[in-house]
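User: Quick sanity check before I run a bigger batch. Here is a single chain. Can you write out its predicted 3D structure?
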Amino acid sequence: MARYAAYMATRAAAAALLLLTSAKTGSEPPSAAAGPGLGQPVSDAEIAVWDIGVFPDGTGLPPGRGDARQGREIYRRHCLSCHGARGKGGSAMALAGAQYGLTGDYPQKTVGTYWPYAATLFDFNRRAMPMQAPGSLTDDEVYAVTAYLLFLNGIVGEDERMDAVSLPRVQMPNRDGFLPMAAPPMEAPPGRP
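Assistant: Done. Predicted structure follows.
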């Protein structure tokens, strides 16, 4: 009850301050349509830094390239301490070396058994890894470490170069292992078109 009274007192004080400010300047309080006047416009360059999404078909993959031989060293420097040698045996999730698929009695979820698209593996690695410095790898490094993970799972050869053309063509073992679900259509809130 005391919290509610404090909340109402704060609201009343804010409304009074707004009225005083409006009266002093002779301006009208901002309308709801004009917005609260917070924030600032964002430039196209600022949006581009965050707009790095990569889709299953490879849309959004950047220029660059790498293979598993190059990725081995990047993995050793940035991934091994959590994921273990050759993608398993560390404190974090195993990335390779599953003996059983997802439908067996002992399902093992790794890049090779779970991930449906190689392009989205690149996307995840670029956004979220390494855990201590996400987004710090260059695009070439991300291509290389992605190639190394695919190599550890027996999906690509050690010398196969991964880039914006070859990566979407990689056929992941679990590509057809997900069931599509149709979301129900959304209805507009009352009073909105």
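The longest strand covers residues 65-66.

User: Great, the batch can go ahead then.
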